[in-house]
Amino acid sequence: MKKLLFQIDTDPIPATFDTVVAYDGGADHVTALGGISPANVGAIVDGAIFTRAPKEKKFTAIFVGGSNMAAGEQLLKAVKKKFFSNFRVSVMLDSNGANTTAAAGVACLVKSAGGSLAGKRAVILAGTGPVGQRAAVMLSREGASVAITSRTIENARKACDHIQASFGIEVEPIAAPELDDRARACEGAHVVFATGAASALLLRESDWKANSTIQYMADANATPPLGIEGVDMMDRGADREGRACWGAIGFGSLKLAVHRACIAQLFEAADQVLDAEEIYARAKAMA
Length: 287
Fold this sequence. Notes:
Elements: E1 4-9, H1 16-24, E2 29-33, H2 42-49, E3 60-65, H3 69-82, E4 90-93, H4 98-112, E5 121-125, H5 130-141, E6 145-150, H6 153-167, E7 172-175, H7 179-185, E8 191-194, H8 205-209, E9 216-219, E10 236-240, E11 243-246, H9 248-266, E12 273-274, H10 276-286
Parallel strand pairs: 1-2, 1-3, 3-4, 4-12, 5-6, 5-8, 6-7, 8-9, 9-11
Antiparallel strand pairs: 10-11
């Protein structure tokens, strides 16, 4: 029985990255469809759930992707709404690579901390995007108190409200438009995770070196200048002035491995939904 993956993308053109990883993860055939929304996904799901016998449904799966996590979340809800009884297949959400990226980054930070971040304060710089929001959830569930920064308090609060509504987790919003503001936001922090746009400097090297509480840092940006000055994109838990540091390429290998492993997992049973929590559990086991 062939392992069939339907890659439904909220963007007009499906991401080739996701297609390649799907094949590397064990799919025998990938059907990549772009411009998918809750309004037009129904027939796709029907075709996936009504065509194979119950014991064979595990060989069909759905991957939800695209550059917009909010749109991906709505698409996932629409897909799940079509399921009933044993008429369902496994589905994974990884819009913008947010779940796998955040999972890998946080798993590596936890590994550096010896397996626990309980009682730590974590600050996610430029954390209102999908990677930052997902990382906030994962760090909070590791027992850390979490804050996210944004250029405006309105954007920060909007992201925190979304996290509260979606995951029941309270995250502190901080307005930090300038470098000095972000340095102050990190005062008292033990963990700093930069998840901003490419080539955006978020924290100066002199500022984190002057901060006596920071122990662990990760930067999701691989395009110079990096988000955290003084961290190298290849860092894999590197010791820099007594801080364990992870660069985007350093934890990126785990991100890819987790993505592949989750694709393989989809074909193990027909009743799985792989979202932030499930993907993070896989990353933590593989870190």
